[in-house]
Design goal:
The chain has 6 helices and no strands. It has 120 residues and is mostly helical. It has one domain (9-119). Helix 1 runs antiparallel to helix 2, helix 1 (9-24) packs across helix 3 (43-67) and helix 2 (28-38) runs antiparallel to helix 3 (43-67). The mean pLDDT is 85.
Length: 120
Amino acid sequence: MKKFNLWGKNSLLGGLIGAVNGFFGAGGGLVCVPLLMKMGFDRKTAHANAVAVIFPITLVSAINYLLQGHMELLDSLIYLPGGIIGAVAGTGIMKKISPTLIKRLFGAFMIWAGWRLIFG
């Protein structure tokens, strides 16, 4: 377990992750995974911990969007069953593939997402 300091650098990094996630509606993991790796986590542990960090941040962001009238809850819930199945599949696959392949897939996804945002 890594050293926890509620009011130190970790809290500031968490704030950055939350701001990116809240502003873009997603993307906190793109910041969180590299930061966790820089703090000494191996790749698989960084990805797993990023999900644990992002979940409550995303929940708070979703509640804020809902309260501000930017989303309809029922419009989002139709994606939940598929999302749960995908999450189970993704965690199962991660256990079986190498950290190098995870790194390449994550990098390719970031490039694809960036390309779509700029040119799509």
